[in-house]
């Protein structure tokens, strides 16, 4: 469904973790709006397949840049490269993450630090790197993917939950710092989204049914359900919205 948000057509959009899951739906969704999309991911095969699947279907084929977001120098270089390839960056979607489970008793400092390098640290450094490009274009929008997981008292992922709560704090701070530059910063908190990874690792049929029973809407949420809210927060339709969080969970909370 192209052209819901005409201001996104031709806009430079950088998406982290765009190779699979929700990120892949976002790459396809922004591309369908006519945006110029670049995405960063370590999953090379899936990312290349995604680009190939969009060939001939979108006005601007997305640009894939293999990047490990735990490496901040590589992230900075990728942002510079993306800005040149897209002719500027007006939207940043901080989406990449890895929701590993970890035992309270056995977490060590190295594990904690690596978990936060995957789930939190790159959000800040991506924003820091894109800000000059957004200022040069007269403003921009940053959307960070947090999670309702940090609100659910889930004991099996303390480092991930802390990172996802941190994204909300970071959203508020960046909104305050970058608002004078007309850069808006918001966060989306997805609920239970049945991506391939979730189905493979964490959510079997029984768990999915239990989750759906807790939602007001009695259906599975799919990656595509995250696209509309993200397009909205990235576009001028939300021009006066910043420092906010949007829960997209089918009414689980
Ligand atoms: N799926 C859900 O139910 C759910 C629920 C709440 C929040 N979220 C959040 O939504 C976002 C997307 O979730 P998803 O389910 O699509 O995740 P996913 O694990 O399916 O995809 C994440 C992407 O990030 C990439 N990635 C991971 N580590 C990377 C690294 N070091 N460098 C570069 N890329 C890396 C992966 O290769 C993958 O393509 C995440 O921020 C997640 O925390 C998801």
TrEMBL record:
Classification via InterPro entries: NAD(P)-bd_dom_sf, Sc_DH/Rdtase_CS, SDR_fam
CDD domains reported in the protein's UniProt record: SDR_c
Coiled coil region boundaries: none
Classification via Pfam families: adh_short_C2 (PF13561)
Keywords: Oxidoreductase
Single Gene Ontology MF annotation: oxidoreductase activity, acting on the CH-OH group of donors, NAD or NADP as acceptor
Gene3D superfamilies listed in its UniProt record: NAD(P)-binding Rossmann-like Domain (3.40.50.720)
Record-stated family: Belongs to the short-chain dehydrogenases/reductases (SDR) family.
Protein name in UniProt: SDR family oxidoreductase
